[in-house]
Structure formats: structure tokens, C-alpha cells
Amino acid sequence: MASTPSITITRLDLQRLEQLLDSLDDFGPAAEALQTELDRAEVVGHDQVPAGVVTMNSRVHCREESSGKDYHLTLVYPQDAGGEGKVSVLAPVGTALLGLSVGQHIDWPVPGGKQLKLTLLEVEYQPEAAGEYAR
Questions:
Q1: How far is Cα of residue 30 from the mean position of the Cα atoms in its chain?
Q2: 112 C-beta neighbours (distance < 10 Å), count
Q3: CA-based nearest residue to 36, from 12, 54, 17
Q4: DSSP states of 7-59 as a string?
Q5: 112 vs 14, residue with greater confidence
Q6: Contact present, 120 and 59 (Cβ < 8 Å)
Q7: Strand order in 86-88's β-sheet?
């Protein structure tokens, strides 16, 4: 990863993501990348996370800088991925989005050796901001 902006996650998301990692049969590169992000994150209570931070089940608007293409994505657990715009936290872009704040960007390697530069433009929905803690 060429760029690693500071990230914030909730204590509840941390607990759930650690349980997810513990449950994996194959702790491969995707799991290692997520563990690295969890290890470096600032952890806060669900009532302390700013509204402009990407948490689990947040819907975001981001832009891939080289193409200018906009994406509307929802960050989900692996079992919920696959629907339109739903990206798993174990996918490279999902791991990259976790904990980002509006205005931050991250460089993330993708298959074929390319780097994507994603800029977070808006958190359109965040469960914590909506008072939905049991998501």
C-alpha cells in the first residue's frame, strides 16, 4: 500500500471483524490486509464515531481518480456481498474503505499490478449516525 491515511473504526466493528478473521479457514492475503488495517486503526465507541467515517454497512460515494468514475458502494461482511454495489470488507477496495473519512484517499493495489486511487467524497449512510447500532 503506497498511502495509508489514518483510519477510525468502532469497537463493535473491531469485535465483529476479529470474529470474522478468527472464523476463516484460509487466512490469506485478504485477511492479512484486513488485520493490518485493524491493527493500525483508532478504535472508538459507536457513539463517538464521526458521521463522515466509513463503518461496516455504510454506503459511500467515492471516485477513482485516474478514470474519474464515481462509485456508490456499501461496505458489507463477506456473506452479504455480491448484490449491486455491495463490496466485501475482505475485497481490496472494501478493506481500503474501512475507517476512511470524507476527503481522504487511499492507493490500493489491484490484480495486474495496477494501483487505484480512491477518494471518499461522501458517506451517504452510516448506521451509527442513523442510530442503528445492531446492524
A1: 13
A2: 5
A3: 17
A4: -EEEHHHHHHHHHHHHH-S---HHHHHHHHHHHHSEEE-TTTS-TTB--TT-E
A5: 14
A6: no
A7: 86-88, 69-76, 59-64, 115-125, 105-109
- 95 residue type, one letter: T
Average pLDDT estimate for 122-128: 96
Domains of the chain from N-terminus onward: 8-130 (3.10.50.30)
Q: What CA dihedral angle connects 128, 135, 4 and 103, to 10 degrees? A: -40
* Interatomic CA distance for residues 21 and 135, integer angstroms: 18
pLDDT of residue 121: 97
Question: Residue 10: is its pLDDT beyond 50?
Answer: yes
Q: Look up residue 19 and give its three cell numbers.
A: 470474529
CB 66 within 8 Å of CB 116: yes
CB neighbour list of residue 129: distance below 8 Å, 6 or more residues apart: 51, 123
CB 92 within 8 A of CB 107: no
Residue closest to 46 by CA, chosen among 124, 131, 113, 112: 131
Mean pLDDT, residues 102-115: 82
